[in-house]
Write a structure and sequence with these properties.
Layout (H helix, E strand, L loop, with lengths): L7 E3 L5 E6 L4 E6 L7 H8 L8 E5 L5 H9 L4 E6 L2 H13 L4 E5 L6 H6 L7 E6 L4 E2 L9 H7 E2 L3 H12 E12 L3 H8 L3 E10 L8 E8 L6 E2 L3 E2 L8 H8 L11
Parallel strand pairs: 4-5, 4-7, 5-6, 7-10, 8-9, 11-13, 11-14
Antiparallel strand pairs: 1-2, 2-3, 10-12, 11-12
Helix pairs in contact: 1-2, 6-7
């Protein structure tokens, strides 16, 4: 679900477009080819709870879509965007500046050591919120893109999910929340990875169409949480019967939140 949620227009001859998100309140420059931000990033931002002053860390930020969308909604967050690809990290920096959003951009592999994180200013127990959209296609079942950047953004290795969740657990303060989006058929893997140090799990399935299985899950979980798990009513992107179209449109425009973002 990384298709463009609004409109695109090629703005130069170097293969970049400028795309409107949140009903035009956020404009992002990104490569025309390769991995492109879209619905996943907007849904992730709408599922993430944050307050002014919170230190928010976006793992795998790409051009900054999810983190910047969250910062557009919650003014005054201390935003840090973590991205492995230097070109995307530069675009994220430019996009933050172009939208008047203060953000620190770090070029870093999320699977790096604790020392590498600390050198980048991400010391243990320092974040109030982590959100992430890890590479989630199974390398054994998914043919990697010949474009290196797209393959890096989409294809997960055997330890990708566990490594990313470990990094989130390390940087989060006790009692703080991680929100992530993952493919729905990998939910068992998500729950297994969260069993070490996380609890109070909330799950929101996302369906492309009502009659078909879920294609994504949005998951919110708390470091050290002990509350019972919650499974929310599904979000259906192309059917008005489960979630009124007006409400879904408000979510995509950044005017409404998903249940996981409730305090």
């Amino acid at each position: 679900m990384n298709c463009d949620p609004t409109n695109s227009a090629v703005v130069d001859e170097a293969g970049f477009t400028e795309d409107a998100f949140l009903g035009g309140r956020l404009r992002l420059r990104q490569p025309r080819g390769g991995h492109r931000a879209g619905h996943d990033a907007v849904l992730l931002a709408a599922a993430t709870a944050a307050r002014p002053g919170d230190r928010v860390v976006d793992f795998g930020a790409g051009v900054g879509a999810a983190g910047l969308a969250l910062a557009r909604r919650v003014a005054g967050v201390d935003l840090k965007l973590v991205e492995i690809d230097p070109q995307l990290a530069r675009l994220a920096r430019d996009n933050a500046a172009a939208n008047g959003i203060k953000a620190e951009i770090v070029t870093l592999d999320v699977t790096s050591s604790a020392n590498a994180f600390a050198a980048a200013g991400l010391v243990p127990d320092s974040a109030d919120v982590v959100l992430m959209n890890p590479p989630f296609h199974d390398a054994g079942r998914h043919r990697a893109s010949p474009e290196a950047a797209k393959a890096l953004a989409h294809v997960a290795g055997p330890a990708t999910l566990e490594s990313w969740i470990l990094a989130a657990r390390r940087v989060l303060k006790s009692g703080s929340a991680l929100t992530l989006i993952w493919r729905a058929d990998g939910l068992a893997d998500v729950l297994a990875a969260l069993a070490h140090g996380f609890g109070s799990v909330q799950i929101l399935p996302v369906h492309g169409e009502a009659a078909k299985p879920a294609i994504r899950v949005l998951v919110r979980t708390v470091k050290g949480g002990r509350a019972p798990s919650r499974l929310y009513r599904s979000l259906v992107l192309n059917n008005e019967s489960t979630l009124p179209k007006m409400q879904l449109d408000d979510v995509m425009a950044g005017m409404a939140l998903l249940p996981l973002a409730a305090p």
